[in-house]
Specification:
By secondary structure, the protein is of the alpha+beta class. It has eleven helices and 32 strands. Strand 29 and strand 30 form a beta hairpin. The chain is elongated.
Length: 605
Amino acid sequence: MSTDPITTPADDVVETVEIAEIAEIAVPATPDQRRTFGTVIEEKEYDPSEFDRLKIMYEGTLTTLKKGEIITGKIIQLTKDHAIIDIGFKSEGMVNIDEFTNSSELKIGDVVEVFLESVENKDGNVTLSRKRADFVRIWERIQGAFDNEEILQGRCIRRIKGGIVMDLMGVDAFLPGSQIDIRPVRDFDAYLGRTLDVRVVKINQPAENIVVSRKVIIEEQIAGQRKAILDSLEKGQILEGTVKAIADFGVFIDLGGVDGLVHITDLSWGRVNHPTEIVKLDQTVNVVVLDFDADKKRISLGMKQLMPHPWENIENKYPVGTKVRGKVVSLADYGAFIEIEKGIEGLIHISEMSWTQHIKHPSQVVSMGQMVDAVILNLDVQDKKISLGMKQLEPDPWSNLIAKYPVGSRHTGVVRNLTNFGVFVELEPGVDGLVHISDLSWTKKIRHPGEIVKKAEKIDVVILGIDIDQRRISLGHKQVQDNPWDVFESSYAVGIESEGKITRIIEKGVIVELPSGVDGFVPSSQLANKVVKNIPESFKEGDTLPLKVIEFDKENKKIVLSVVDYFKSRDAESIDAYLASHGLLNAPAADSTDIRPEDFNFDED
């Protein structure tokens, strides 16, 4: 702030005070002269030279004052509440006695500075202020300190949002929390009542706002220390510092005026979810310089590098076959990572979690943070990988399965799952076997296992084979019963007549169920001696057909039948009745040359 007196706006009136009442004064005789000097007691005429002399004498008594300036006055009277001050004006000014800091020491004749607030108030009196004069002088002093970057002292008087209010030479100034110290300040209340050295960093005179900083002074004081640290930095150097701030990605360390960063990966050899697991604010720690950029003043620090690497001599500490205990620190689709100790983790693959269970995700067996036991299966020191197993802590049940489930033995299991190719049956908890679709029935042509069994049903099975290496058990359901094809060989020999109920219509003909429950096949060319253009139009599921066996294949479990051959020994009336029942009476006769051997093969359907 300038040291010039505070001026008023341009439209403020500058008053020239005139002495209006004089006991006796000489005035010119002209009307203009009378208007100039105002009212007089007695008019006399003077010659021009005497008039000019009197005019000069009168003008010497006039005082020019400006509203808003600091002026000097003399105390001419003291009352209980006020000090009457002569400022050389036509009337004296009055100041409240409380505005003087040393009011008890005031006496008549003291010369004081006051602020002219108004030349004439509503009562016609001069308005003065000692407090405002002090305030203006303080502002001038603060402005000078700001311009010259001087250090001032202020007392912390109260806390507000974002910082502290200070008493700076009698006026309020704001000390932001970020400007209290070079380190983050977490307890503002600890500074209340303290006197601090500060520097004015911002002034808003119209709003009478002052912002100060203690941090800039501290930074200047440690500038030399900072330079010395930067000049002496070397990779591998071990330093002591204080935890200044903690972020998700790492920790900022104050090295005594210079900050360095310990990345979260350099805090510990072990897995760290957040830096607060390792350090806390204001903690003193030892760090090693990993790298630094002198231009950008960036320093990379490490803490784990001061500790031995956990993988040193790990072969001696954790040889293959060692039983260990650790915490589940991560889950992946393929397994669980176990922290054996800080910096040493191993993987339990889902295939190593159970001898018998089909585990799709490790969460079926373990959970985050759980302590589990495992066995060292493999140790790769070069790539720092450890393979662990949980199932190895228990005997392998498959080693006893051959004795418990010998081939040919019969058992009851529960249908655990159905697929297009077969049925998975649980023989005991964790022990499953597969019944292939071809081993579900001796007599039925099954398109899906769901036609025979449902999930969670009990089913009788026979052990067909066990593969210990592949952990597979082959089961059969149809083998629970004797093979009926030995009987069918005589029951359905070529030339035997029978009847069958249509159970399924396929492109090449129809599937029929014979009286003994076995399925047979009737090719489309053997359905009638007439041309059958559209089988579903002439034949429906549930229709019963007269049939004769024309082919029996025990090895491939296939019986082929014919309606045409059945009616070869029947009369015309029976044939017509059959054809009429299926809407084929007026159809063109079939040509025997249309019969193809492949029409007799229905396995693909």
